[in-house]
Model the fold of this input.
Amino acid sequence: MDNKSLKTVGSPSLEELKNSPSFPREEDFLRGPIAVIECIEEIPCNPCQTACPKGAIFVGKPITNLPKIDFKKCMGCGICVAACPGLAIYIKDLTYSEQEVRISFPFEYLPLPNIGDVVDMVGRKGEEICKGRVTRINNGKANHNTVVISATYPKEYFQEVISMKRL
Amino acid sequence: MNKASIVIIGGGPAGLSAAIEGAKAGAKVLVIDENGKPGGQLFKQIHKFFGSKEHKAGTRGINIGDQLLEEAKRLDIEVWLNTEVCGIDKNKKIWGIRDKKQSFSIVADKIILATGAIENAVKFSGWTLPGVMGAGAAQTMINLNRTLPGKKILMLGSGNVGVIVSYQLMQAGAEVVGIVEAAPRLGGYGVHTAKVRRAGVNFYTSHTISRAIGENCVEAVEIVQLDSNWKPIEGTEKILEVDTICIAAGLTPLTELAWIAGSKFVYIQEMGGHVPAHNKTMETTVEGIYVAGDVSGIEEASTAMEEGRLAGINAAASLGFYIEKEQEERTKIVWNGLNALRCGPFGHKRKNAKDKILASREG
Amino acid sequence: MTRILKHPILGDISEQKKVTITVDGKSYLAYEGEMIAAALFNNDIKTFRYTKHHHKPRGIYCGIGRCTDCVMIVDGIPNVRTCVTPVKDGMIIETQHGTGEWKRGGQDE
Done:
């Protein structure tokens, strides 16, 4: 696989992600909150597999295998989000509400937003896509300073949004 | 003290891991480090490491540093800080200076060189101006000295060091204006480049720095596009306002002591240039002198720790602390760990390069 | 302000014990035990020396004591690597020109 966007722009295109073994299909998203792993390059790494309490993520050997997710097992708990050293995992919930979807993504910058804040949601190239509202900030000890922020935003931008703009 | 069984020069990830394995085997080890604190570059690596559980994956470099120091303490490993080694000879006599005052010499049964590496420079007009610095230097400033080297930064080099330090500069509160890469494709892991890209950082592939602008310090930088023969394309110059330029253009092993000791060397470009030829136990061509970590070929902290363990186990075994079978078993476990890190498109190149070093030693 | 007081991974640092250093005759405050280079950056000083022949400015380059680009005259001793030498109260630091010169009154003779 060429991964042209990843290796020139710096981030993968949706097309490249869809070609990777772990990227969810429409029917997977309809199940509820699930983990999305944007890890499309074979690097030696498997903490996502070790972290998953449901055994839903499989890397196997060699550890350079791309992770695979069994969406029947994934509950969207988000433990893998803070465990991924590459900050390449987020949880997305297409079923959050009629108009809105929800994302929980890793965030390692200061300042942190407050719950209820309206923030700029960004896409893979850092481009501002829409406004979102922060609903949860998880800075638990097990995260080791990788804060997981949850935010809701309009359904029409479901695939494009992956993070928020730094404050 | 003028005799020691295993002396380890350099107390970074490789050296500490070597010391821990040596001490676990029962050998009396001494770690010598020129800095005021052991840990080498681990304490500026604030990101979570890759690998798997046995490589401490998911743990930040700083925390791995703490773990190694705790273990070294528990094993009662002696560490001489602020101690510079100036020379070693074939008879494994080490001499140097402690606390910038007092010379010493000590004879070791085995020596493990874990001296690390230094960042490469890239020359362009104005590259000596204050404000141009190694990416690792900027990382030291922010994560160890808690000091921002600048507010608007341009990074040269998109390998893992370039992108990781760019990310950490943003975490420290700086703005990264762009990352310039001479090659048409980015060098670092995609997860790292994606992380800085979504933070809004632009990558300039097929570009290089044509000049740093400023009288007494960096005030701006001019970048230029390169053609397929790496030649600047006239008319594509672009000026970016920055106060700091960081250079992440690879590292060179710090091999002085291995040269002085008389080891055979082999030139492997992918490993950073001249590296001491060594075998699978990390022993150089000088009997009883081992290497581990970046000095034996540029890789990363995870592999450095494994190589340190190899050197520690085998130095101790050669002193009789392990019987052959134990030595083989322990060595094999570490090699399995190393091989796990050296696979995939990135690791494979390093594996091939390492194999060349091993082949040169056998031949 | 170049000092990083808040950090998402390393946590916050509170104000620390300050010491006074003198740089080219002027007094500055520094945190006790920080490297000279960091103390100077935090006081907006980025030029540490001038080269011998062309009198070009130099600052820090490698930050880990290998390249010697950042050397200055410290307490009368020239060529001190400021990136790996911690400040002490009352330290006298001078911009180095060329290879510098030894001055009387150096603490370590």
The helical segments of chain C are 36-41. The mean pLDDT of chain C is 93.
